[in-house]
Amino acid sequence: MIDDFGSADRRFVIRVILAAGFLILFARLFQLQYVNAEIYGKEAEENSIRNVPKVAIRGYVYDRKGKLLVDNRPSYTVVLTPVDFDKQYLPLLSSILSMPEEAIIDKIKLGRKYNAFIPTRIKRDISFAELSMLEEHKDKLYGVEIQMESKRSYPTSARGSHLFGYAKEISDAQLEKQKSDYQPGDIMGSTGIEAKYEQLLRGLKGFEFISQNAKGQIIGNFDNGKHDIPPIDGLDLHLAIDGDVQAMAESLLADKRGAVVAIDPRNGGIIALVSKPDYNLSLMSGTTTPEIWRSLNNDEGIPLYNRATLTRYPPGSTFKMLLALVALDKKIIDENWTITCSGSFRYGNKVFKCEHVHGRVNVVDAIHRSCNVFFYQLMLKVGLDDWSEMGKQFGFGKQTKIDITEENSGLMPDRNYYDRIHGKGKWTQGYLISLGIGQGEVGVTPLQMANYASMLANKGKFYQPHAVNTVVNKRTQRREPVKVEQRQIELSEHAWSLVREGMRRVVMEAGGTGRAARVPGIEVAGKTGTAQNPHGKSHAWFMGFAPYDNPKIAICVMIENVGYGGAFAAPIAGYCMEEFLYGEIIRNGKHPLPMEPNLPDEESVAVN
Amino acid sequence: MNSFFKEYFDRVIFFSVLSLAGIGLLSIYSATFDAYEGRDFFRQLMWVGVGFVSMMTMMLLPLRWLQRNALRIFFASLSLLLLVLVVGKRVYGSQSWLGFAGLGIQPSEFVKISTMLALASFLSQSDVKATDLKDLVKTSAIVALPIGLIMLQPDFGTAMTFLAMYIPVLYWAGASKFLIIIIIAPAFVAAASVFGTTPFLIVLILLGIGLYILRDENRFFATLVFGTNVVIGFFVQIVYNKLPLYQQKRISTFLDPNNDPLGAGYNVIQAKVAIGSGGLLGKGFMRGTQTQLSFIPKQWTDFIFCVPGEEFGLLGGIVVLGLFAVLLFHGVRLASIAKNKFGSLLAIGFTSLFTFHVFVNIGMSVGLMPVIGIPLPFLSYGGSSLVSYMMVAGLMMNVYANRKEY
Question: Collapsing DSSP states into helix, strand and coil, what is residue A320?
Fold first, then answer.
């Protein structure tokens, strides 16, 4: 076997393989062209084969109680097979559909580029009048067909504009990227859940092959339907969202600019996610006219912008708990450490103000009554490094990886940041003081804030926030829970209990700024905050959780340009928690609309 | 003069290649005349001219010079491939074209030739043994380089043709059947396991029988190989089932185009109808209703076989198959009669390359093979592939001319 190069043996094997290959090809040709020539011959001479796409039903979306939030409604779409259409009837088609001829030609060209033998969409969601006109001129409009499709509808009062998002016709750029999966005119999730779960929601399109004679009459299924592929419907999504809380939060924010995010601290499920102003998703299903787009894009309230995940404001006093937790856990202070608040704090030649003269306060009092001086001093004791490390552990300064849409990572300043901005060694402790009360460079999103509230509620457990709980396949009955990232911050029980007690007093006891968030019969904990805004009135924050002993909901409310958190944000949080925990509003039996702030609007403390 | 010709000029290759190119031209003329007023035909005619000159040039190059410089040519051609990745144009989703003086050139077609030259040159060295592990690693490196670069484009079909060349060359050079099975088994096992449990079991049983017959080398090793393949099969199945639906669809469509009536499957059905409707004698030149009406999109590139199939029927199909059979069996004979290893390896490698293209391309047109976008040599529309295949034919003629030299 030393020199086996090109042996007769090997030559034989290769020849056998060659011969076998040719024999198989020959046999197949013989089968197609002689044995089956009848079938194919007739087929080819008289008929053409059309393939008719069968649209898959996009997945449904339910809330945590099983209520249907996103539904499908039938709609009629005009499709056209480029090779069949007789151009002389273009004006007719154009007048029936009241569409400029150029627009129709553009659509045909696009379809032709993809595959001239497959129907391409011309107009979606046509009216009944258009439909009957088309039927009337059917004989002339060869190649033009009506396809049943579905469009999204939203049966509940929950709008969920930024949460559900919309699906629209695939753009040319997207199509170029995903040519093998999509066809021109296909619907593709564009924002929110529709975009993130596009691959699950869309299902798989099916096809039917039909034979047509030269007059375009359908003769029947080609080859007895052997090649047909039934569509596979999209998967359903069951959300952690509570549709009622979502709708309530939306209505409470109706005339404001701001956001509400509520999270289930037991698992990170998003209970509600609202950004206002918003827009009506129904406008986006079917066809969206350029006028609608223009008005949405030019609206000064930027309704398309998701404030819940994209705005970045200083967290204000809500950050005091963070500082207190580090100080207590690292044993820098204990519950007996006190300072005396004289209404201001002088550092070097700068004066930092407090709201009131609080006198002697310990850590629980300082949270309860929101004493700034306590936290100015504490910040100097704790220092930047431990503080920013703790902030990062609570998820600030990075994206939460929520399953909805783009999000801002916020900013949690640290040593590197200051070195970069001011230069190494060129910044002093004085720069840090206002960080202690959540002002200055630090920036957080409402979503991060809700997550922070959730981690305070469950004592340090981080769950990746997720709107979708379970993906359900109706056909196979398979239910698959979404996988969620988790981690735990380890802090002393002592630190947790003092800080959480402070938060409880903020809402439950006299002198607290969050009393407006109370819910009848349930202990609520929380904290208000005011994000200073150099351009106008401050932004109001409230974050908190309930019930205190066994938290089931954590929430953040942010309202732009109104002033104090206690006055505007806290009551909204209270109503949302009440709705979630009781399933209805029980106080006075009254629905809270329209709502007036039940605390006087104090002058903003905005300092330069 | 006549005997000189007989001695040095390979008429079999010459005439079969020209006949095939002629059928290709007629087919392109027939398929595209209506829509493009013959523009594609004249373009292809020009390419046949360029190809003819290249073929003659390749026939006349000194074979020993090629053997000595094979590695240099190989690396030079690889740098062209790199260039494609940097500046290449995207056509049908893969970046494999170089714009060059207004003409598109696909370097990967030419890299097939240079890779084969390098492989043959290396394996023909007297101290190299195809059975030796060290040399095996080196040859696989020669093949892996272009495959890697082409997968970056990405062009899966072209990358596979390199393997289709490499494995028979190894076999011809003396590698054991056992080794060949080890190399090709995982691909079959993986594909079968995607299809389902029954095909997977059948392939496993076949593999078991094969390994049992050839176990003489090392029983333990044979068992190990079998076990590895079982694991691969299960692993592929598990991974496949975890993939999102649309990715599963992509894979199953690739393996069985009938699953995707919108894209590849549509072409396959139409191709079958076109060929089938040709009957025994065909509908006549320029009379194919399916090809005339362009029912088969892009049929003058990858689905070109439909045109002779429809217009000349079974007869046309047999002529095309027959011409290829003549060419390929002649290639095997050439590999046997060439006295020098370099020439012999070139002959077998190029024959395998053609074989793969012919079987996969025609197999695809008649619905027996996955839809892999590789051209039918000498017939498909496209300058780079035509010129490169005519160069290959020229090199085979060169081997014939030098067949008696050691």
Answer: helix
Which residue in A has a C-alpha nearest to residue B277's C-alpha? A41
When CB atoms are compared, the residue of A32, A53, A207 closest to B272 is: A32
Contact B84/B153 with Cβ under 8 angstroms?
A: yes
User: What's domain A243-287+306-589's superfamily in CATH?
Assistant: DD-peptidase/beta-lactamase superfamily (3.40.710.10)
Average pLDDT over every residue of B28-57: 80
**Contact A5/B174, CB-based, under 8 Å?**
yes
Quote the DSSP letter at residue A282: G
The whole-model pTM stands at 0.63
Using CB atoms, pick whichever of A5, A14, A209 lies closest to residue B173: A5
Could you tell me the fold of the domain covering A50-237?
Penicillin-binding protein 2a (Domain 2) (3.90.1310)
Strands A359-361 and A461-463: unpaired
**DSSP annotation string for A187-234:** EEE-SHHHHHTHHHHS-B-EEEEEEE-TTS-EEEEGGGGTT-B--BPP
Candidate from A87-96, A380-389, A461-470, B8-17 with smallest mean pLDDT:
A87-96
A482 touches chain B (CB under 8 A): no
Provide the chain A residues 43-82 that lie in CB contact (below 8 A) with chain B: 43-45, 48-49, 51, 53
pLDDT tens, residue by residue, A431-461 = 888 898 999 889 999 999 999 999 999 999 9
What are the chain B neighbours of A10 within 8 Å (beta carbons)? 171-172
Quote the pLDDT of residue A505: 95
Of residues B295 and A555, more confidently modeled: A555
- Which candidate from B250, B293, B362 shows the least CB-CB separation from A25? B362
| pLDDT over 90 (residue A295) | no
Residue boundaries of the structural domains of chain B: 2-168+257-401
What pLDDT sits at residue A464?
94
- What residues have CB less than 8 Å from B143, skipping those under 6 apart? B115, B119, B162, B163, B165, B166
Which residue ranges make up each domain of chain A?
A: 50-237, 243-287+306-589
